[in-house]
Design goal:
8 strands; Transcription Termination Factor Rho, Rna-binding Domain, Chain A, Domain 1; globular; two-stranded parallel sheet; alpha/beta; Rossmann fold
Length: 239
């Protein structure tokens, strides 16, 4: 059993940790891929979309890249599972609308929601830090099979407002923003590089190692690990 004592908050990765990577790859990625072209052609004047398209051109080093080139790049990055902010932003726009229309319902492993409710009820703050955009995170938690879970979460972090997930500086940014001492923050993720970065920043970290997930066979490089959230004993600092 992995135990974390005297923590004030739990920070959650989504893909591979709270939710199945397969759902994201098999359901959400194709949903976005089928709609990138229309989004670029019809909504490039919207501020959020325009900023993301500009960032795509910057990433490509092609300031004059047209709609077809941008769509090609987005699809290539999707195939490569690149965690690039403009890709995640545009995915988030499309996914949020899909969830709102009832075309999408998110996935959570069966052990996750009961644990989140238990920790929240005990006074432990919950945060989300995902490579997916904040808009996508809110949509994900707002349209779960168990209803709207957004009330459990105190705040949301992505690669835009916190930084890359495998850099310690991102975790320092989150700690400063929450006002919580680093060693009272517990990060849950399936990715060793993210756990390493959190630990360098002074956080506690537990790897969630679920059979069938991409990082299961690789192992967690010496980090404490749990197969389910039921194995993670979160005890508030006042306990």
């Amino acid at each position: 059993m992995s135990q974390a004592r005297a923590v004030d908050a739990v920070v959650l990765d989504i893909e591979g940790t709270t939710s199945a990577t397969g759902f994201v790859v098999d359901v959400l990625y194709p949903y976005a891929r089928a709609r990138f072209g229309a989004l670029i052609a019809e909504r490039s004047g919207e501020p959020e979309v325009a900023r993301a398209l500009s960032a795509v051109r910057t990433e490509l080093g092609e300031p004059d890249a047209g709609p077809a080139r941008i769509e090609q790049a987005l699809n290539a990055w999707l195939d490569q599972d690149r965690k690039l902010t403009p890709l995640k932003t545009l995915q988030g726009v499309l996914w949020a609308e899909g969830f709102a229309r009832g075309e999408l319902v998110s996935h959570f492993y069966a052990d996750v929601v009961p644990a989140l409710r238990r920790w929240h009820a005990a006074g432990t703050r919950l945060y989300v830090y995902s490579s997916g955009s904040v808009a996508a995170q809110r949509a994900w938690f707002g349209h779960s099979p168990e209803g709207d879970l957004r009330g459990l979460v105190s705040d949301w972090y992505d690669t835009q407002n916190a930084g890359p997930k495998q850099e310690a500086g991102s975790y320092r940014t989150i700690a400063a923003d929450t006002g919580i001492v680093p060693d009272r923050l517990l990060f849950l993720s399936d990715r060793p590089g993210e756990l390493d970065a959190a630990r360098v920043a002074g956080w506690r970290a537990v790897g969630v190692r679920r059979p069938g997930e991409p990082y299961y066979e690789q192992g967690l490089r010496g980090h404490a690990e749990a197969r389910t959230f039921e194995e993670i004993d979160v005890v508030g600092s006042g306990a």
